[in-house]
Specification:
The chain folds into two domains: 223 residues, Type I PLP-dependent aspartate aminotransferase-like (Major domain) (Aspartate Aminotransferase, domain 2, 3-Layer(aba) Sandwich), CATH 3.40.640; 118 residues, Alpha-Beta Complex (Aspartate Aminotransferase, domain 1). Helices cover 38% and strands 13% of the residues. The protein contains eleven helices and twelve strands. Helix 1 packs antiparallel against helix 8 and helix 3 packs across helix 7.
Length: 358
C-alpha cells in the first residue's frame, strides 16, 4: 500500500533531538529562538513566534491582533475545524462563506457580501498548499479597514506575486504537524510584520508574562520545546528540495491522470502541494477511494463535512460550492519520498478506476 501521507524523518532529525537532550535545555530556549530567526527567511523577514501547535498559532494570533468577544471573523467552511475553533475560542464569531471550486479557497466576492458593522477580520485558508486570492482579499480588507489573518497551516513557502503567504496581513499561522510539508513533530509558527503583535503573542504563549512572575495578562502555556524546534530547524533546511519534488510529482499527475478533475494553479500563485487534491465528478467519491485502496493506493478526504455542519457549530447555511467540494475531493499521495514506480502506480490506479466508472 502506498500511504496517503508519510512524514519525512531521518538521521539528521534524530541527531538534532539528541543534541538538545544532551544540552539539558529542553524547554523554550536557544533552539526555539534560532528556529524563529531561520523561519523568517521564508516569510520576507516577518517577526516569528513559535508555539506548540498550528491551532495555538491561530488562537494566539487572533488574540494578539485584538480579535475578541463579539467580533465577527469571515472564514471558509471548507477547512479543518481548527480554522473556526480558533476564532470561537477568542469569543469572536466565525462567519462562514463559500469557496472557489478551482482553488478550494475562500471566495472574495462571498467575503465582501458577508461584511457587517461587527466584522473585525478575514481569515483565508491556503488549503492543500494553494494560496487564496490574496490580492483581492487584501484589497477588501484595506477597503473596509479589516484585519487580514492567514491560515497558512498547509502552505509553507507558497506565494502570490512573489510575496510569501504569512506576509500579507497582520498575522499568518503555520502548522508543523507530522504530515505537513515540514514538521517539528508538533508545533506552529505565528508570523507578523507588527512588533506589537509579535510581543503580545510571546506574552500570551508564556502564561501572560514577558519577564518571570510579572504577568501582564491572563495567558496560556503554548510554548514550543527546544526538542521540537531542533527538528523544525533541520526540516526547514530541506523544505525547498521537498517542495520542488512535490511540485514535480504534481506535474506528473496533472499530465497523466484521466477521468478526474486535476487541481489548477492560479496565475501568479506558487502551489506547494501539501495535498494533490482531485475532484471525482461523475463517480461516487468514497467508492472511488475504496477501489484505489484495493489497487494499493491510499488516499484521503479533506474534508468530508464542512465546518458549519459539524455538531460543534451546526448552522443551516447555503454554501453550494463548499458542499460540492466536500462531496467530490480526494487527495492522492504527493509527498517527496514517492518513487517513479509509486507515481506510475498511482496514475495507473486512478485511471483504471475512473475508466471502470467506480
Amino acid at each position: 500500500m502506498i500511504p496517503a501521507a508519510k512524514p519525512e524523518i531521518g538521521d539528521d532529525e534524530r541527531a538534532a533531538v539528541d543534541r538538545v537532550m544532551q544540552s539539558g535545555m529542553l524547554a523554550q530556549g536557544p533552539e526555539v529562538a534560532a528556529f524563529e530567526s531561520e523561519f523568517a527567511g521564508i516569510v520576507n523577514g516577518m517577526h516569528c513566534v513559535a508555539v506548540n501547535s498550528g491551532t495555538s498559532a491561530l488562537h494566539m494570533a487572533f488574540l494578539a491582533a485584538g480579535v475578541g468577544e463579539g467580533d465577527e471573523v469571515i472564514v471558509p467552511s471548507f477547512s479543518f475545524a481548527a480554522t473556526a475553533n480558533s476564532v470561537a475560542l477568542t469569543g469572536a464569531i466565525p462567519v462562514f462563506v463559500d469557496i472557489e471550486i478551482d482553488t478550494f479557497a475562500i471566495d472574495p466576492a462571498a467575503v465582501e457580501a458577508a461584511i457587517t458593522p461587527r466584522t473585525k477580520a478575514i481569515m483565508p485558508v491556503h488549503l492543500y498548499g494553494h494560496p487564496a486570492n490574496l490580492v483581492a482579499l487584501k484589497h477588501i480588507a484595506d477597503k473596509h479597514d479589516l484585519l487580514l489573518l492567514e491560515d497558512a497551516a498547509q502552505a509553507h513557502a507558497a506565494s502570490v506575486d512573489g510575496i510569501p503567504v504569512g506576509a500579507w496581513g497582520v498575522a499568518g499561522s503555520f502548522s508543523f504537524y507530522p504530515t505537513k510539508n515540514m514538521t517539528s513533530g508538533e508545533g506552529g509558527m505565528i508570523t507578523t510584520p507588527s512588533e506589537d503583535v509579535a510581543r503580545m503573542a510571546r506574552v500570551l504563549r508564556n502564561q501572560g508574562m514577558e519577564r518571570r512572575y510579572e504577568n501582564e495578562v491572563v495567558g496560556f502555556n503554548t510554548r514550543m520545546t527546544d526538542i521540537h524546534a531542533a527538528i523544525g530547524r533541520v526540516q526547514l533546511t530541506k523544505l525547498a528540495a521537498w517542495t520542488a519534488k512535490r511540485q514535480s510529482n504534481a506535474a506528473f499527475f496533472t499530465e497523466n491522470l484521466k477521468g478526474v478533475v486535476t487541481p489548477p494553479t492560479a496565475s501568479g500563485a506558487v502551489h506547494v502541494f501539501h495535498q494533490y487534491t482531485i475532484r471525482i465528478a461523475g463517480h461516487e467519491r468514497d467508492a472511488f477511494a475504496s477501489e484505489l485502496a484495493t489497487r494499493g493506493v491510499g488516499s484521503g478526504v479533506y474534508y468530508p463535512t464542512p465546518i458549519h455542519r459539524l455538531p460543534s457549530f451546526a448552522l443551516d447555511l447555503d454554501l453550494p460550492v463548499t458542499e460540492q467540494a466536500a462531496a467530490e475531493v480526494l487527495s492522492l499521495p504527493v509527498y517527496p519520498s514517492l518513487t517513479d514506480d509509486d507515481l506510475a502506480s498511482i496514475v495507473d490506479a486512478v485511471n483504471a478506476v475512473a475508466e471502470a466508472g467506480a
